[in-house]
Fold Oxidoreductase.
Amino acid sequence: MTTTQGHLYGKVALVTGGGRGIGAATALRLAREGADVAVTYVAGKEAAHDVVRRVEALGQRAVALRSDSGDPEEAAGAVGRTAEALGGLDVLVNNAGVGVLGPLGELSLAEVDRVLAVNVRGVFLASQAAAGRMREGGRIITIGSCMTQRVPGPGGTLYAASKSALIGLTKALARELGPRGITANLVHPGPVDTDMNPADGPFAPGQTAMTALGRFGTAEEVASMVACLTAAGYVTGAEFSVDGGHAA
């Protein structure tokens, strides 16, 4: 067991969708910085519990919570459950999201409702609940998308719209919560190697060609930016691209 003494020592973090990909990497990085961590999941129970075991191996407390960010009660409820299980809340990472791509005319109402429910309403409700629980100097960090800055081709209307809504939300949160020392920031990943978008997948060559660095990023590289923002007390209402130059 490793005892961690980083800048988040004694703090509690909630990472939504923390069972895999960017969420899992973020949960582990925050644990290495000393935080106790809660992660939410919908279907990937075993993966989420594996993250818990890895966090505990670092000497931190951890809990996996089944919570669907598309369900209004569960989106807000995960915040309270985290605070009850781990004794408070200092960091909220709004990572859970869904991506639906397709021609504008073929997107169904059900798809529109689901994407907006998870990517926008769920983030709003979790942030609202966190604001009621978060201690002075807390951090709200939301995972956006490089498609808010550059949509490289057709098929991204719904996803880009949902992620773009987070820009206004983040700026407004910064203004509203600033007097309490709570910061709110937004991280825009570009093409990142995860099971949802693998670097060796069928769409990878085109995505890679759009970056200045000519490669996919890693989940750990995005997590590093999140960790940096948890330490940055004078940065709020800002957007940060971790996209390999996708928007350059």
Helices lie at 21-32, 45-57, 72-86, 109-133, 157-177, 204-209, 219-231. The chain has seven helices and seven strands.
